[in-house]
Hints:
Structural class: alpha/beta
Number of strands: 7
Order of helices and strands: EHEHEEHEEE
Largest sheet: 7 strands, mixed
Strand content: 25-35%
Distance between the termini: 20 Å
Shape: globular
Amino acid sequence: MAFIGCGPLPITLLLFSKLYGIRCIGIDKDPEAVALAKSCVKHFGLEKEISIIEGDENVLSELEWDSVLVAALAEPKPRIFQNLHTIIKRKSDTGKPISVCYRNYTGMRQLFYWSVLPEHTRGFRKINEIYPSCGVNNTLVFLECE
């Protein structure tokens, strides 16, 4: 699993690794965030399970992964999804679908995060959407390439 925009505190990666044994790749374009994320991963002794890489979504073309999360703060979303579509199409010769997940926010949090718009995800089809409940105000959206 890859996470574009993992940030300096890769909690999602730590949880996926510790709770579910998932091998994770964190990607961030901010060198300071990458250094802090690597330090955090090392602190928990998870260097073999979690790789942190400086770069953008394009580094995924050189790596092994089977699903990808796009952080709410990862930008620019149109470019990220377009590049993901191209990379996934190239990797799809394995026959195994590669899923993409992102969050959209509702309520006041919309002020902090740019929404993913339908035109950003052209070439993908929505396979599932999990709506907010219990005071949570973000929707998880799962996609696959068409």
